């Protein structure tokens, strides 16, 4: 097999894996008891193909948890946390993370998704948030009485509330995100 053929096969495998993960989020966020067959159908692949990538449900759950961590770190990078004041950067981070709502609501709803050791360690995005809040303490833009870990937990709690509000109260995602951002700004103000 030539290097071009190997590269094409690798790209095809990556697209198939991504399609399965995306379909799993869509299907499982609507029905947590859905079968792997339901996920395969939503991904447009056969059950045999799905089982080649994820032999058991637990393997799929593990990879969804790992994928969520990667997407959180990617969102933190896109938010450019080193630019502007801490409240501005945290607002940008909320906007980026808000787009991951279905995935993160699914992940946080079932401890099976967060069983890997990676979920117990501080990630690059965790450290960046902590450093950002500490920077806000130093420059006077974040209430110094609020510990960085508290602000980080507040951010996740507000995002969860916004996702829930959008899904249960029939408000637009834009309205829910606006409420999240407003509450965050007022909560951390010095």
TrEMBL record:
Residues in HTH tetR-type domain copies: 14-72
Top-level division of the source organism's lineage: Bacteria
Residue ranges the UniProt entry marks as DNA-binding: 35-54
InterPro entries per the UniProt record, alphabetical: Homeodomain-like_sf, HTH-type_TetR-like_transc_reg, HTH_TetR, Tet_transcr_reg_TetR-rel_C_sf
The keyword Transcription belongs to this UniProt entry's keyword annotation: yes
Pfam families linked to this entry: TetR_N
Keywords noted in UniProt: DNA-binding, Transcription, Transcription regulation
Name this polypeptide is given: TetR/AcrR family transcriptional regulator
């Amino acid at each position: 097999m030539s290097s071009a053929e190997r590269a094409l096969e690798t790209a095809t495998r990556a697209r198939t894996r991504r399609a399965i993960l995306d379909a799993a989020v869509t299907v499982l966020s609507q029905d947590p008891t859905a079968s792997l067959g339901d996920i395969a159908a939503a991904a447009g692949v056969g059950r045999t193909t799905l089982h080649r990538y994820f032999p058991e449900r637990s393997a799929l759950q593990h990879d969804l948890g790992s994928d969520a961590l990667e997407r959180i770190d990617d969102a933190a990078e896109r938010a450019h946390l080193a630019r502007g004041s801490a409240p501005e950067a945290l607002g940008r981070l909320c906007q980026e993370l808000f787009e991951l709502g279905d995935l993160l609501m699914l992940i946080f709803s079932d401890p099976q998704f967060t069983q890997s050791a990676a979920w117990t360690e501080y990630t690059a995005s965790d450290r960046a948030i902590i450093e950002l809040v500490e920077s806000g303490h130093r420059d006077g833009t974040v209430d110094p009485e609020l510990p960085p870990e508290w602000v980080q937990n507040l951010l996740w709690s507000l995002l969860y509330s916004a996702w829930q509000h959008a899904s249960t109260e029939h408000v637009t995602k834009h309205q829910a995100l606006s409420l999240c951002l407003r509450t965050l700004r007022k909560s951390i103000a010095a």
